[in-house]
Structure formats: structure tokens, C-alpha cells
Specification:
Helix content: 40-55%
Strand order of the largest sheet: 1-2-3-4
Strand content: 15-25%
Distance between the termini: 29 Å
Shape: globular
Radius of gyration: 17 Å
Number of helices: 5
Order of helices and strands: HEEEEHHHH
Largest sheet: 4 strands, antiparallel
């Protein structure tokens, strides 16, 4: 979304919490999208990580790839569906995760080769 509106935004897959980072020549701030859009500094992020028992490493504040963000989202949704005892949705997302992890996608169809014929 940031790219579409011309803002330098990147996803940060911090352990236990996902953030969006805005970085320009003048500013570097982390946006906590799941906490009302709270603005955090690097020190705030380090404090959160320490309090949560992860310790702090610079790599925790590095850019997450689109694939990593999608995988994290799928895993979170799979956990939610498992808690809800919704095996159908969980299985569907599990298939998406398999496709994502294999990296083998039929670009014409948007899935693994042969999956459209199989009804997946």
C-alpha cells in the first residue's frame, strides 16, 4: 500500500508482533498497526522484545519479504481456525501454505501446476 501512495513503508516481522516501518531521510518510525497505529521508536521495539522474552537483535527490525509476510499471515489464520475447530478453512490455508513454501507456482493459473484441474 505504501508504494501505491508514494510512502517508504516496509513490513517488519518482529517476533510476536508485526509492525510497519516508515523511513525517510529525516524520520524512522515503526507503526504498530494492531495497537491503534501507535508510533514506536527503535528503543520502544527493543523494550517490547526484551519484555516479551525474545531479547533484542537488529535482525528483528529488518524488512520482511512479501512471501514471509504472507506466510506469517497464513500461519496466524491457521492457528485461529484451529482454535475455532474449523478444519475445512484450516485445510484450505494449509494447501496455500504448501504452495507458498514450495515456491512452485503456475504463473498462468496462480497455483501449483495441476491444482486447477484438481479443484484446489
Amino acid at each position: 500500500m505504501g508504494r501505491r501512495i508514494g510512502l517508504p513503508l516496509i513490513g517488519i516481522g518482529m517476533p510476536g508482533h508485526f509492525l510497519v516501518k516508515f523511513e525517510s531521510e529525516r524520520y524512522k518510525v515503526f507503526v504498530d498497526c494492531f495497537n491503534g497505529g501507535a508510533l514506536l521508536t527503535e528503543k520502544d521495539c527493543a523494550r517490547f522484545l526484551m519484555q516479551a522474552g525474545y531479547g533484542f537483535e537488529e535482525k528483528y527490525l529488518s524488512k520482511s519479504s512479501s512471501r514471509a509476510i504472507l506466510a506469517r499471515t497464513l500461519k496466524n489464520l491457521m492457528a485461529i481456525y484451529q482454535k475455532m475447530d474449523d478444519a475445512v478453512k484450516g485445510a484450505r490455508l494449509s494447501r496455500f501454505m504448501d504452495i507458498l513454501e514450495s515456491g512452485h507456482v503456475d504463473e498462468k493459473r496462480g497455483g501449483k501446476k495441476g491444482e486447477c484441474e484438481q479443484g484446489i
